[in-house]
Amino acid sequence: MAWFILAIAVFTEICWALSLKWAATLGSWQASIVPISLSFLNMALLAFAMRGISAGTAYAIWTGMGAVGVIIGGIFWFDEKVNPVQIGFMALIVIGVAGTKLFSST
Questions:
Q1: DSSP per residue over the chain, as a string?
Q2: Does residue 105 have a pLDDT over 80?
Q3: What pLDDT, on a 0 to 100 scale, did the predictor assign at position 61?
Q4: Residues 100 and 60: beta-carbon distance below 8 Å
Q5: Is the distance from CB of 36 to CB of 19 less than 8 angstroms?
């Protein structure tokens, strides 16, 4: 169950970061409510996942997959550009996350 909660935390991390950019493009204080709310939800989910997964493993997966997800989301929603070298390093992050999960003791 902790791994499922961590997956949801990763998703909310991606939504949170993308909502920061979205709120910045709107420039209103009302739009700021979305990333603030997602931040609280995100931290609560990560903390809950850490009950069953070691902190280092959970955090490494959360940050790594969150970073890759935000890059992909930025490409789709904000027309951001990435080059082949960046894609290669994103692949290395995914490999590192997979290895971290594969060899974790929980």
A1: -HHHHHHHHHHHHHHHHHHHHHHHHH--TTTTHHHHHHHHHHHHHHHHHTTTS-HHHHHHHHHHHHHHHHHHHHHHHH-----HHHHHHHHHHHHHHHHHHHT---
A2: no
A3: 95
A4: yes
A5: no
CA distances from 24 to 7, 12, 31, 82 (A): 26, 18, 8, 21
Q: How far apart are CA 88 and CA 11, in angstroms?
A: 22
Q: What are phi and psi of 74, to 5 degrees?
A: -65, -35
* Identity of the amino acid at 19: S
- Shortest CA distance to 9 belongs to which of 46, 37, 35? 46
Token look-up 């989910």 returns: 45
CA-derived radius of gyration, the chain: 15
Between 106 and 23, the more confident residue is 23
> 7-17, pLDDT tens digit by residue?
999 999 999 99
